[in-house]
Design brief:
- Helix 2 (121-137) packs across helix 3 (153-164) and helix 3 (153-164) packs parallel to helix 4 (181-191).
- The protein has 261 residues and is an alpha/beta fold.
- It has a six-stranded mixed beta sheet with strand order 1-8-7-4-5-6, covered by helices on one side. It has a two-stranded antiparallel sheet with strand order 2-3.
- It has a single domain (52-258), classed as 3-Layer(aba) Sandwich (Glutaredoxin), CATH 3.40.30.10.
- Strand 4 (110-116), helix 2 and strand 5 (142-148) form a beta-alpha-beta unit.
- Mean pLDDT is 84; it is low at 4-9 and 42-52.
- The chain contains six helices and eight strands.
Length: 261
Amino acid sequence: MADETSKKDQPTATGAPAERGVVIDPRMIIAGGAVALIGIGVLAAFLWMIPSAAARESVSACRGMRGFERLNPALCPSGVPCDLPVPAPDFTAVDHNGKPVKLSDFRGKVVLVNFWASWCGVCKTEKPSLAGMTNDLAGGDFEVVALASDKSWGAAIVASIAALAPNTRVPSPNDNGEYDMKAVLDAYRQALPNGVPFKVYLDPPEGDDNIGKIAASWGIKAVPESALIDRKGNIRAYFVNKRDWESPVAQTCLRSVIDED
């Protein structure tokens, strides 16, 4: 009788059966490749959607707190009303030591610029939520800059005390509107021993104007107004009048820009 055992099943010289060959069905290769391509496509689509979703979240949250009100032509490159984003005009203010500070010095960080003044009652009511939000969010990637449309530091400091420590007794100006700075600083240290969480700079008005020179150059005629500026120096949202900066929608608006790569 013929040996029906195939050659590959015959014992080897060592007595062990020969290994069977591995046969791969080409259809499996094609199917596996198709699945892999689909997976790559889904991953690519997901990665593409991440920045788009972040951008939509930013727009939605900032729109929810009316952050896209029509910009003043002074902020628009063409000089006519325009839409966001637009480059934030650079400016130079002075700190309490008289040191000049530029907005562009903060490039690489997200910045909320808050225009206010000591004589503005609405600004005082906004300050507590601005301070609370700054305590929560400010850090290496985010700064809050408050520009005071005041001619003296005395007025700006007294207004900060009145807004953030309302039960503190503050000095009054003399008949010329000038403050005793020693008395002002003593009251400030007593009322706010840790200072204020945001950075305050002076933006003195020219002549008899009430609005600071920088604020006026941005087309501002009344305060408060605020601009949310991204790491590249573009205004991403603009807020006319006060806001509750500790509200969930405000936190989402700010974080959506802060968390961008």
